[in-house]
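ok here's Cell division protein FtsX:
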Amino acid sequence: MRPQFVLSEIGVGLRRNLTMTFAVIVSVALSLALFGGSLLMSDQVSTMKGYWYDKVNVSIFLCNKHDAEQDVHCAKGAVTEDQKKQILSDLRKMPIVEKVAYESQDEAYKHYKEQFGNSPLAGSLTPDQMQESYRIKLKDPQKYQVIATAFNGRDGVQSVQDQKGILDNLFQLLNLMNRGALGVMALMLFVALLLIVNTVRVSAFSRRRETGIMRLVGASGFYIQAPFIAEAAVAGLIGGGLACVFLVVGRYFTIDHGMDLSHKLTLINFVGWDAVLTKLPLILATSVLMPALAAFFALRKYLKV
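and the structure:
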């Protein structure tokens, strides 16, 4: 097969169906940009889970004298020194516990003032109203329930709280948004495939005389199909290249510069450039293979006529 012939036919096909080719390029670019964005979102959620789950604590809040008057869990009064020692001893014996830190009322008050100093309630609170607590780092954050079962309802314990539960709600929201992006991506990909099939069929119909002559002189099916498949692959590759540009530019202007989220949201560990660059070859490969396969199957029926 002469490469010059294939290249000339690709140029003819792209020029004849310029509007549909442009629609194919835009559809492929948008759908694959969403595909790459969804992959990066999944990586971002996994990175955030690894970062935050490693830092979450289980907190055991102890009863103070104010809780004894208002909270049914502290009906037996404020926590005693013996109860605190027993709780600490039991925690250190548990194999799932990695580290235990004690926070006094004064320390709790200081931390509250640092975080919520501008709150209207901050001025009315005093250190003796704050709760002592044990901050527990687990070897496996998924085993929070073991701590809750062991200490909820115990004398001197007001409540057991798991910070992981708060993070789970955030990650569920992020995963839901990611699934929504995947749904839009699938719809755009379906539209792109329809456009590719229609573009190839229109191109084949406009050149039916040439392909008919080629069949009469004994040209193979692949020889006839090659220009159409290559035409679809080139259009897809251009769309895939645009999708890669969208991802790189989007990462640059949202995280590094422009919006500068990496400096404004320092508590979030954003995915790095390595995660973006590893997605680009996959996007480019998909942008070539998807249109090529769509064109191949679209032309099978035409060549049998």
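+1. The mean pLDDT is 78.
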